Amino acid sequence: MKSKTNKSGDYDSLPTSESQTQIGKNFSAAINSRELLTPKDNAHTYILELNELKKKEAGEYNPHEYADIEHPTTFFETLIHLLKSSFGTGILAMPLAFSHSGWVLGIIGTAFIGLLCTYCMHMLVKTEYDLCKKKQVPSMTYPATAEAALMEGPRFMAKVAPYSGTISNTFLLLYQLGSCCVYTVFIGQNISNVVNNYYAIDERLIMLMTLLPLIMICFVKNLKFLAPLTIVANVITAISFAIIYYYIFNEPISLEDRNAIGEVKNYPLFFGTVLFALESIGMILPLQNEMKEPEKFITPCGVLNIGMACVTTLYITTGLFGYIAYGDDVDGSISYTINQADIAAQVCKLMLAFAIYTSYSLYMYVSIDIVWRQMLSKRFEESNQKVLWENLCRIFLVVFTFSLAVAIPYIDLFISLVGAFCISALGLAFPAIFDSCFRWRQLTGWKKILVHSKNTIITLFAIFGLVIGTYTSVQDIVKKFAPS
């Protein structure tokens, strides 16, 4: 090695001999654990590696600089994925949600839940970043974040930490699979509404025809390759909403006979529907972790704020005017309510079915990640049939969600149940708990009291919504199957 300094003066100020010795030991371990570049590049490699070790010693580790992503997504592509994962069946159920709450409470409630969801997403991403920085790892999954955060908390939470990954994975899996069930019902019913204008075909047979296409799209194995299809689906969704708004504003716009405040017994259904519609909690960390510039995800004008502002505004608009137009006659999806005989309405339903078809793959992407990559793949690590087993896993998950959708084809109640049970925990309660645990030893005085009080209120609100919303949704599903 010719010199300890380079032309740009990387080592203008060398560390003390004690620090040099420690860094040298760390660097020796790094050399032994990796394959270096060619001999002529050894000096340059040493400089780069030693600089990174100096940063780590000084606590300057930046997780984003160490992310190793095979197919990183741009700011725009990530925003498209976030919007697509949010503009699903939930927005089409918003007029029904407003019929449960009344139009005044619907506006206030949706805006409040939208702000709360966005805030909790910020807490989750910030906690994950701080934990990555402390543990010096590039990224963490939701379950890994859960376990690491709880380990930082009080003693009784640290005891729960080893089980938190399994708990988080269970809720995530239920949410993603539940969403896929909702999407399967939606695709089948929209196609059925169109076909039945011309042929009398059983709805379940039409749903069966969608099974093979659903399996095929789930064999696309990374988000980068889904981006072009997602952009097309977003354009189609925009056209479909234009058609829906055309029908909405063709109806007399009057608040007469429209409830400003709905019945209290229906509030849990409103809560569950709005939560399901607004939250994309299962996609947040994967989307950020696959970004080319992940630091732009939670900036003031970042992906998350722009996406959630657009989503919340459009949800309030659709819910309000859809309810004003059709009142209590609105169906579980407003696409079912618009005139079935019109060609424009039929085209709209088919386009929406295709758009939701692409969203199905996004939600199944997370389900496959949990079931295969985190639970099953290690068991087949040395098998020559590993790819075959992975493909069988993909097929099984699609068939499983399809079977549930055929068995319980009530899209509005499915939406409320999944939203109340899964999103109350994943999107509200858990991020608040993670934030409190991670900052447990960092805060003092009034700031500690305020932060933990705030997180406690969010957690209690989420638990209340989970219990009441789940009970109401299950009760209504049971009524559907009860003999009349």
UniProtKB/TrEMBL annotation:
Residues 71-473 form the Amino acid transporter transmembrane domain. The chain crosses the membrane at residues 79-98, 104-125, 172-192, 204-220, 225-247, 267-285, 297-323, 343-366, 387-408, 414-434, 455-474. It is a multi-pass membrane protein. The keyword Membrane applies. It comes from the Eukaryota. Residues 1-20 are annotated as: Disordered. Its main location: membrane. Keywords: Membrane, Transmembrane, Transmembrane helix. GO terms for molecular function: L-amino acid transmembrane transporter activity. GO terms for cellular component: vacuolar membrane. It is found in: Membrane. This is Proton-coupled amino acid transporter-like protein CG1139 isoform X3.
